[in-house]
Design a protein that fits this description.
By secondary structure, this protein is mainly α. 45% of the residues lie in helices and 7% in strands. The strands form two sheets. Strands 4-3-5 form a three-stranded mixed sheet, sandwiched between helices. A two-stranded antiparallel sheet has the order 1-2. It is globular.
C-alpha cells in the first residue's frame, strides 16, 4: 500500500564523479545546501501526527483506555467525555457507542480531544454502516442496521478465522429464526468484562441482559466494534443448517446441526484444554469443562 521512495538523506549531492573532481568548489557549495535539505526531511517526519490504532473486535472500554493513553490523559477521562461528545448514534444505541467506534488507524493531531476522536470514529462507522448495500443486506435478513452490527460484533468475537465468520453468522440467524437462545460465550464474557475460553455453569446463570444462555434474541447492544469482514459475514452468511459450533483447536472449528455431535465436539474441546492445562510449560489458564451451548468460544 505504500510506495517506497529513496530518503533524502541517501541522495548523492554529485551525480557525476568527473565533475566533482574538476569543480571542487561546487562540492563545498553543494554540501552547504545539504544541511537544510536534511533538516527539512527530519522536520517533516516530526510533523507527522501520532497514530491511534483501534483493532477489530475491541470493546468500547478498550478504545476509551487507548484514547486516554494517546492523549496522555488520566484514566477514565474519555469515558467521562461521552455526554459532551454529541455522538451521532442510532436511536437504538441509547447513547452507547459500542459497535460504532470503527476499527481503523486514526491520526492524533495537535489539539485532538477525546470528543473529537470519538466523533471521528462514530462518523466513520456511520458512513460504513449506513451505505445502501448494508441497508439492503440487513433488510434481506429481516434485520435493521443496528441489529446487523450487533450480529457482526458476535461474529467478530466468536469466529476463529475469517473463513469461519460466515458460518458463525449463519448459526446466529438460524437460532434467531427458531426462537432459540444464542448461548454465545462471548456475550457472557462481555457481561463479565473478561476474555476467556472458560465458561462455567454458574457463568450462564448471571443476571444480565447480555446473558444469551438465559435470554432469547440479540443482546441489547453490540458487544465489540466489528470490522468490515465481520459486517460482510453478518450481511451475507454462509448457507447452512448449523445450530452449534465449537473451536476445538486453533483453526479447527466444528459446525453442526446435530446436538449429539456437538456434545462430542465439546468433549474433545474439554479434553484438549484439560490436557494443555496439565503441561508444566503451559502459560494459558487452566481448562475447564465448556458448557455445551451454541459455542465454546
Amino acid at each position: 500500500m505504500q510506495t517506497n521512495t529513496p530518503s533524502r538523506s541517501r541522495i548523492r549531492l554529485t551525480r557525476r564523479g568527473r565533475l566533482a573532481v574538476v569543480l571542487a568548489g561546487a562540492v563545498v557549495a553543494g554540501t552547504a545546501v545539504a544541511v537544510p535539505l536534511l533538516t527539512l526531511a527530519v522536520d517533516h517526519e516530526q510533523a507527522k501526527p501520532a497514530a491511534l490504532v483501534i483493532p477489530e473486535g475491541w470493546r468500547a472500554s478498550q478504545v476509551y483506555d487507548a484514547i486516554d493513553k494517546a492523549l496522555k490523559l488520566p484514566p477514565g477521562s474519555t469515558r467521562k467525555s461521552l455526554d459532551k461528545a454529541a455522538l451521532q448514534l442510532p436511536s437504538q444505541a441509547g447513547g452507547n457507542p459500542e459497535g460504532y467506534l470503527f476499527p481503523a488507524t486514526y491520526p492524533v493531531r495537535e489539539g485532538a480531544t477525546p470528543e473529537s476522536l470519538l466523533r471521528t470514529m462514530v462518523d466513520t462507522a456511520s458512513q460504513k454502516h449506513n451505505s445502501a448495500p448494508v441497508a439492503a443486506g440487513a433488510q434481506r435478513n429481516a434485520m435493521n442496521v443496528y441489529q446487523t452490527v450487533t450480529i457482526a460484533s458476535i461474529v467478530q468475537a466468536e469466529a476463529d478465522t475469517k473463513v469461519d465468520m460466515g458460518k458463525v453468522a449463519r448459526v446466529v440467524l438460524n437460532r434467531l429464526e427458531r426462537g432459540m437462545p444464542l448461548q454465545m460465550d462471548s456475550t457472557i464474557n462481555y457481561a463479565l468484562n473478561r476474555n476467556t475460553l472458560r465458561t462455567s455453569q454458574d457463568d450462564t446463570q448471571i443476571a444480565s441482559p447480555y446473558n444469551s444462555y438465559q435470554r432469547t434474541g440479540l443482546p441489547p447492544t453490540p458487544i465489540d466494534n466489528p470490522g468490515e469482514d465481520a459486517m460482510r459475514a453478518a450481511l451475507n452468511p454462509t448457507p447452512g443448517d448449523w445450530l452449534y459450533f465449537v473451536t476445538v483447536r486453533p483453526g479447527d472449528t466444528r459446525f453442526t446441526a446435530d446436538y449429539e455431535e456437538h456434545l462430542r465436539n465439546v468433549a474433545e474441546f474439554n479434553a484438549v484444554h484439560q490436557s494443555a492445562a496439565t503441561q508444566p510449560s503451559s502459560s494459558g489458564p487452566p481448562g475447564t469443562p465448556a458448557f455445551p451451548g451454541a459455542a465454546g468460544s
